Amino acid sequence: MWQWFHKLSTPKYYYQWSGKWLPWLAGLTIILFAIGLYWGLLVAPTDYQQGESYRIIYIHVPAAWMSMFVYVVMACAGFVALVWKTKLSEIVVSECAVIGAVFTAIALITGMLWGKPTWGTYWTWDARLTSELILLFLYFGVIAIYSSIEDKRVAAKAASMLAIVGVVNIPIIHFSVNWWNSLHQPNMDIISDKPSMDPSMLWPLLVMAVAFKVYFGWVLFMRIRNEIISRERATKWVKELVVGR
Amino acid sequence: MQEFFYMDGKWMYIWGSYAITLAALVLSILFANRRKRKLIREIEDSLEE
Amino acid sequence: MRPKRKQRLIFVTILLIGFSSATALGVYALQKNKTYFHTPAEINAGSVEQDILFRVGGLVVEGSVNRFDDGVTTEFDLTDTEGTVTLRYKGLLPDLFREGQGIVAQGKLNADGIIVAQEVLAKHDENYMPPEVADALKASGASHPENIPKKNY
To answer: Domain residues for A178?
Structure first.
């Protein structure tokens, strides 16, 4: 197991291994999105309170979950990058920062578009909204540090440290609705046998959540592979790869 | 069908959210694809020299 | 220091300053919201003075919503079950505004003891269900768990 991990963390081996997964991730993403969108937009019933506006939940909530999930992945990779200094984990930090920032921006924008028709405002300085905005700034911070330091190894070290420190924001986002009782709704209960969402509406949400996760795997693999080729362009295996295409 | 697109008057918010999200997700994939093609071309050029 | 490196250093410094001030601003905004939040019971007891902006949260009292003839002004009562205040709001109310709904408003107390609201926001809970299920739930006598916006909004 450890040996396999060790092998996987070498760029060349990772490149070959991830290449086999790409078509499966791409296909699964498209299928899951098709099912989730059809189910959420056409099959799921109207909400008794919010009417049609609630349908934004099918992208807002998965994006918000991903914004936190990707951050934790990035922080773990940052930890590995600091302790074991593997090249691959350094690349994971920089690529997660970009993808995570996109998910966070989606969560914020769709949240605003949902807030206007339901709450009556696009934005309010509520604990959940503010902590999610700080998450976006954390991603920007990691991206900026990475791109502003020329030596990529040094850059990875500094960016990883910010990524790890910023992890404190994740429980703050999750519990903000309990600690401050914000305008934002409380966290949904989706695991008990009496969930806070009717099953007819909950299932498409879970499909969309899985769709977002698989999409993340797809785009992360693509970006890591690009970064590997870019950094290793002088090596023999990359040259052979390009010639042998 | 018209009712579906009208979304009870909330079409701007709902379709706006979906359009922005899908655009962001699709563009991320297209950018990654474009970068790969560009990288390969660069390395090919450097090999020919 | 090489000019390019210096430029990068300035960039990172500006970024960090921006980041920390944004965080500070957010925390400040949260604290401010907390300070200016009053419950109807507190307002009844005279916790706010006239012409000072504050926030109030509670449930819209059933049967209290009164729409004026001008078509844009609405008057309604807000309760936290311990006290009741009257609000007046000129403007479009959010779709979720209805009797029994939890709302958070921002406004000032006028000379007549009425809160003139500048902003009325509706709060909803985490329960989602089709209308038929909600009706069935109501018919079976189960009370809908609506939460009153608490003190520390």
So the answer is: 20-44+55-187+198-243
Total domain count, chain B: 1
pLDDT in tens, B1-44: 788 888 888 889 999 999 999 999 999 999 999 999 999 999 99
Tell me the pLDDT band of C151, cut-offs 50, 70 and 90. Answer: very low
Query: Which long-range CB contacts under 8 A does A229-233 form with residues at least 24 apart?
Result: A229/A15, A229/B36, A229/B39, A229/B40, A229/B43, A230/B39, A231/A11, A231/A87, A231/A91, A231/A152, A232/A11, A232/A12, A233/B39, A233/B42, A233/B43, A233/B46
Candidates C28, C128, C144, partner chain A, best to mutate (most A CBs within 10 A): C128
Which residues from B are below 8 Å from A59, CB to CB?
17-18, 21
Question: What pLDDT sits at residue B38?
Answer: 96
**Rounded distance, CA C115 to CA C120, Å?**
11
Domain membership of residue A96 (yes or no) is yes
B15 touches chain A (CB under 8 A): no
Give a three-class secondary structure readout of C86-128: EEEEECCCCCCCCCCCEEEEEEEECCCCCEEEEEEEEECCCCE
ipTM exceeding 0.90, yes/no: yes
Model confidence over C110-130: pLDDT tens digits? 888 899 999 999 988 888 988
As a whole number of angstroms, the distance between CA C90 and CA C71 comes to 9
The domain total for chain A is 1
Contact (CB, 8 A) for A233 and B43: yes
Chain B residues whose CB is inside 8 A of the A56 CB are 13-14, 17
**Distance from C-alpha of C65 to C-alpha of C98, rounded to nearest angstrom:** 8
Task: Give the model's pLDDT for residue A99.
Answer: 98
* Residues in chain A with pLDDT values less than 70: 181
| C35 has a pLDDT exceeding 80 | no
Determine contact: B34 vs chain A, CB below 8 A. Answer: no
Which class is C38-139 in CATH? mainly beta
Please report the pLDDT score of residue C152 as a whole number: 43
Helices (H), chain A: 2-8, 11-38, 57-83, 87-118, 127-148, 152-165, 169-179, 199-231, 236-243
